[in-house]
Design a protein that fits this description.
Layout (H helix, E strand, L loop, with lengths): L1 H17 L4 E6 L4 H15 L2 E6 L2 H9 L5 E3 L8 E2 L12 E8 L5 E9 L4 E8 L3 E8 L10 E7 L10 E8 L6 E3 L12 H6 L1 E4 L22 E5 L4 E10 L3 E8 L3 E2 L2 E2 L5 E12 L6 E11 L3 E5 L4 E9 L7 E11 L2 E11 L10
Parallel strand pairs: 1-2, 1-3, 11-19, 13-23
Antiparallel strand pairs: 4-9, 5-8, 5-10, 6-7, 6-9, 12-14, 14-21, 15-20, 15-22, 16-17, 18-19, 18-21, 22-23
Amino acid sequence: MKKAIFLLAVSSLLLISCSQKTSLSGAGATFPLHYYNLVFKAFTENAGIDVSYGGIGSGGGIRSLKDEVVDFAGSENDTWPGLTVKLPGGDIERGELLAFDVYNPMPEPVGLSYRIDRTDGATEFGGENIPAKAWQTVRIWLASGFDGVARIDRVFPYIRMPRQNYTLYFDHFRTETSTERFQRIAYVELAQPPEPTPAELEFGGLVFARGPLAHVFQNSLPWPGERIDSSSCVAARGETEPLTVSVHALRSLDGLTLETTALECEQGALPADAIQVGRVRCLDKKTTYSSNDYIAGLPTYVEPRNVFETLPEGTSCTFWLSVRVPAGAAEGVYHCDALLKAGGRTFSLPVRVCLLYTSPSPRDS
């Protein structure tokens, strides 16, 4: 039906242009050249008027028409056999997909291309290989710089090469969320909730530490031996050593922060920036690049911020402390306090850093 509509539109243009002529010439866009040839052939068979067309570009066709070199100009703007996408009502969030199914009855695969016109005038191109005698779902990812499906005006599917006739069946145009494409893998916590200490009960959270290479998921609970009332590490001059402090909320904690006092010993103090505090961000991450599985809420990277705006009851978070020892620091045992604060309450955690006399050799490192 779409093709018939466009045939009628172009044929009407030619009938207006031809008047009493027995031949017509045109020039313009190269992209719809194959489509034009199909239309002109059908027009010639029905009207008995020969039509020739040269692909010289839309601008060249317009100039040739103004100079009366040709009878009509061809433009790709009104001749694409496109589909108008009607989206469902309501808000469509950024990051969704436009999807549709295509059946290829041909005996060989077909390279389907598509052009997407946005409501603001921007254009996007893409493509998908459709296997022979099979259905294929085409998903158009529009999150990066495209502001979502709600910005789509029209979608134009086409076959660029080779120039020949094809038959494809399109069905089930729809929107999908990105997570519908993948299988969710969630961490299951097997540890039992421990009994909080009076200090933890007053503060509103269980305080624990896990090795820097061990994950603390948002639903993690402290394992046996992980509860802490202090923290320590051993470092050498010029080294950076990590410490982690995790909190499992016994009630909702708003504005949870971690601050540290200065690292001091009898020989003096380390610089104010010797301890830098960050927070561990959890993101949904695919297991591999080509996989359809993703891990929900995987601890991924350290963000240079020392606050969690809200930690809901029953969830956990992790602060990452980077202890950076200057090359000229004096040896000794340095002390400071890590102060967890939320809702006007403070949980104080003593921190000890044992600084070695010498820097480690490359072999020891």
